[in-house]
Amino acid sequence: xxxQQAQVSRADFxxxxxxxxAPAGFVPVRGEGSRLWDQSGRELIDLSxxxxxxxxxxxxxxxxxxxxxxxxxxxxxxxIFTNExxxxxxxxxxxxxxxxxxxxxxxxxxxxxxxxxxxxxxxxDRFGEQKYEIISTLxxxxxRTVFTVNVGGQPKYSEGFGPxxxxxxxxxxxxxxxxxxxxxxxxxxVILEPIQGxxxxxxxxxxxxxxxxxxxxxxxxxxxxxxxxTGVGRTGKLFAYELYGVTPDVLTTAKxxxxxxxxxxxxxxxxxxxxxxxxxxxxxxxxxPLACAVGxxxxxxxxxxxVLNGVTAKGEYLRKKLRELGEKYNLFEQxxxxxxxxxxxxxxxxxxxxxxxxxxxxxADLLVLVAGPxxxxxxxxxxxxxxxxxxxxxxxxxxxxxxVGQAKA
Length: 409
Ligand SMILES: *Cc1c(COP(=O)(O)O)cnc(C)c1O
Hints:
Elements lengths: L9 H7 L11 E5 L2 E4 L4 E4 L2 H4 L8 H11 L12 H13 L4 E5 L2 H20 L5 E5 L8 H6 L16 E4 L4 H7 L4 E6 L2 E2 L5 E2 L2 H13 L3 E5 L14 H4 L5 E4 L10 E5 L1 H4 L15 H14 L2 H24 L3 E7 L2 E6 L7 H10 L2 E2 L1 E2 L4 E4 L7 H23 L1
Parallel strand pairs: 3-15, 5-6, 5-7, 7-10, 10-11
Antiparallel strand pairs: 1-2, 2-3, 4-12, 8-9, 11-12, 13-14, 14-17, 16-17
This protein binds pyridoxal-5'-phosphate.
Pyridoxal-5'-phosphate binds next to α5.
């Protein structure tokens, strides 16, 4: 039996959806690899990867197989039971990382929420009620729950939502002296993105992460790496902490972990995990069999030398080509990032115009992202075909030609 579907279009969005998004003017209906098709049959190249989520592109056959096989077996059992896909995914994640223990949830914000609750619980159990301060960085992004918008360092996301949770401090990113000033015996956690994603694809300095690690050790504060965006192969390592050789106490990951199916994870060690004892935290859907079956397939494919080395090589290629385009059109002051998380920073002549360039790309049948007003962000499939990458770059050049012509005119 199939259910009758109504005809809908982009115009319906403005009538029936809460207006908190401003989606593109077309409605995607089908995807395959790094190509996407809209309702009219227009074909687009996707270098946005669903905002760093579609790590294996659209409808990867192995993920379709994992999801449909699980869909025919078992969807949901609640946390009164455990389930095989969750146990297997947790085995894979702990085998591949510093962590011994995993907590599954459904989104990046929820994984961060769990990490921050864990940090407060650990501090409360071990040192008492007065050790609850969380240090975060300016311009960071950690999700959209009331707690995580306040931990995030972008006031525009937390204004207007009532009293703020207390015990949260923000310091400039990559500023070790500021961190040293802010941290104290009262600090229970420092939370950092190893590469700030949403606010401009800005990598941490090596000495900064090493220095923050040492400060956290000195003050018995948990170091939480938010790898929601950088995790699961995005940077050419399974997790970005490996790029730096700086190991956190807690790591959160989401976006690419499900390749498009919602799943997130908080990873930590035995010593910290034991503080979240029975009943202290939970979720209805987290770790559900469908999500974990997909995550298992994602991890099995991405956590291989072939795929990870491919990410590194393609990332270098993409940055080189973008630098060439930047020079040819005098457009970018910097092209940065790691692996296939790449930011092209517009120079002084084009500040604030990343959105306009992204719109020009869409007119050239290409999907890219912005990361703040000045940065074009690329987060394509980690297994993008060379031909798709080249075609995407060719379309990006067309977009640049239109954009530069208009910007100068
Ligand atoms: C996207 C993102 C989040 C939020 O994830 P959601 O799944 O939208 O809750 C948190 N942290 C970082 C670094 C992100 O990029």
